[in-house]
């Protein structure tokens, strides 16, 4: 994996964060809840890359982006929620205004 393959990029047009690894695109989809809160709704890693830490790298890059931009997140995606459970230091950016439970079971 080269340096470029570890860069998580935001694609505002498609409302997702992207990580291109060896020609395979992995994504975290999001929807803006308000100007300061982003709901992370779905994570998808190319099947050939599963189990190689790509999903974790993608979520980490997404959380780093949110923090750099003073955004809070709502972890609706089960993978993102599990990542935060394993890395509780990221609870610092989880929205207290919009708990995941207020989305009516929006988890996949």
Helix content: 10-25%
Mean pLDDT: 91
Main beta sheet = 5 strands, mixed
Looking at the structure, what is the overall shape? globular
Oligomeric organization of the protein chains: single chain
What percentage of amino acids are in beta strands? 25-35%
Secondary structure layout plus pairing:
Layout: E1 9-11, E2 16-21, E3 24-34, E4 37-44, H1 54-68, E5 72-75, H2 78-86
Summarize the structure.
This protein is of the alpha+beta class.
What does this 3D model show about the protein?
The chain starts with 8 loop residues before the first strand and ends in a 22-residue tail after the last helix. A five-stranded mixed β-sheet has the order 1-2-3-4-5. The relative contact order is 0.17. With 108 residues, it is of the alpha+beta class. The mean pLDDT is 91. A hairpin with a 2-residue loop joins strand 2 and strand 3 (24-34). Helices cover 22% and strands 30% of the residues.
Tags for this model:
single chain; 108 residues; alpha+beta; 5-stranded mixed β-sheet; 2 helices; 22% helix; 30% strand
């Amino acid at each position: 994996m080269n340096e470029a393959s570890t860069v998580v990029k935001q694609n505002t047009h498609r409302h997702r964060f992207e990580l291109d690894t060896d020609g395979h695109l992995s994504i975290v989809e999001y929807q803006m809840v308000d100007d300061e809160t982003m709901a992370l709704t779905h994570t998808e890693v190319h099947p050939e890359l599963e189990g190689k830490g790509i999903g974790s790298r993608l979520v980490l890059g997404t959380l780093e982006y949110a923090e750099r931009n003073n955004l809070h997140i709502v972890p609706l995606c089960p993978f993102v929620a599990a990542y935060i459970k394993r890395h509780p230091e990221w609870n610092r950016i989880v929205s207290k205004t919009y708990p995941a439970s207020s989305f009516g079971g929006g988890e996949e």
